Amino acid sequence: MEGAEPHQLCRSYAAPSLRVREHCIAWGERTYVMGVVNLTPDSFSGDGLAGNPAAAAALAARFTAEGADLIDVGAESSRPGAAELAPETELERLMPALQAIRCATTLPIFVDTYHAEVAEAALAAGADGINDIHGLRRDPAMARVAAARGVPVVAMHNQRGRQAEDVIAGIAEGFRETLAEAVRAGIDPGNLVLDPGFGFGWEPHQNLEMVRRLPELHGFGLPLLLGVSRKSTIGLVLGLPVDQRLEGTAALVALAIAGGADIVRVHDVLAMRRVAAVADATVRGRWRAGPDGGRG
Fold first, then answer.
1. Mean per-residue pLDDT for 88-116?
2. Whole-angstrom Cα distance, residue 19 to residue 45?
3. 3-class DSSP state for residue 74?
4. Is 265 a catalytic residue?
5. How far apart are CA 248 and CA 257, in angstroms?
6. Helix %, strand %, coil % of the chain (to 5)
7. CA 56 to CA 50: how far, in whole Å?
8. Is residue 292 part of a domain?
């Protein structure tokens, strides 16, 4: 309909903004870019920096210069079939790099872990939020840590080991379980971000359906994060290895933004920051001229 506003601008959020350190994340204004720093030796994307805190800090600094809004730091691989780490092993790998990254950037840092013990130590060392790929449903203490600290939490739905006849129905069921845990622990709803879990237990066609039907998850009234970067579904569609999936990632990032994603979690910050800027200008109807004055 002529004159209608983009649907994202009409969304209702549990909280209109989130403040982390000196940064204000205003939901609905634009898409926020989260840069991934992998501290694993076996990352599916081939960018693992295990045992190299200096390289991790340099990557975080580069992401900051390239326009990232958030940094996600993880020390355990979540690729299918990866071995789980004991919390003490995860901490040995995480803490030196986290401390170096904290010195390299003022951006909010999220620790990617499902262990409450690891989250607690990381927050004490300078992390600002938690990214839990099990949506507060794996470690019973995780929700209590998040509530006590009053930090933002990205809670992902993980379909591995679960059955669902419908993609969105399965995600919604997982989100409801996560929200029940959050309520029991006393987590402020304004600190929650939901991630539907692209690539976590779904078939490739279901991952694509998830992106296509993303607007159906707006009813939870919470910001949505989507992590599609370099994933195997893109490789299957294109028939390309992980180091050649930039364009496929860009396509899914743009489609996710069109569907109402508030945060995109990516490996290629500079390129995806540019994708997000154009997608936001188109979908949200808000933009400003870039360095070239918008010419070209």
1. 96
2. 31
3. strand
4. yes
5. 14
6. 45, 15, 40
7. 9
8. no
Among candidate residues 102, 137, 245, 265, the one labeled active-site is: 265
Q: Is 295 part of any domain?
A: no
- Output Rg (C-alpha) for the chain, integer angstroms: 18
Percent of the chain exceeding pLDDT 90 equals 81
Q: What are phi and psi of 192, to 5 degrees?
A: -105, 135
Q: Residue 57 falls within a domain, yes or no?
A: yes
102 is catalytic: no
Span of 39-53, 191-205, 212-226 with lowest mean pLDDT: 39-53
Cβ 109 vs Cβ 129: under 8 Å = yes
Nearest to 15 by CA among 3, 4, 24: 24
State the Cα–Cα distance between residues 227 and 200, nearest whole angstrom: 10
Active-site annotation holder among 11, 231, 245, 273:
231
Tokens read off for 65:
């210069």
CATH of the domain at 269: 3.20.20.20
Overall number of domains in the chain: 1
Provide the 8-state DSSP code for 125.
Answer: T
CA distance to 60, 64, 121, 279, per residue, from 99 (Å):
12, 16, 11, 34
Indicate the average pLDDT of the chain.
91
Average pLDDT, integer, range 211-220: 97
Q: How far apart are CA 78 and CA 76, in angstroms?
A: 6
3-state secondary structure of 270: helix
Residue 291 lies in a domain: no
Please report, rounded to a whole number, the percentage of residues in the chain having pLDDT higher than 70: 91
> Residue 269 is which amino acid?
V
The domain containing residue 235 runs over which residues?
7-283
Maximal C-alpha separation, the chain: 58
Using a cut of 0.85, tell me whether the model's pTM lies above it.
yes
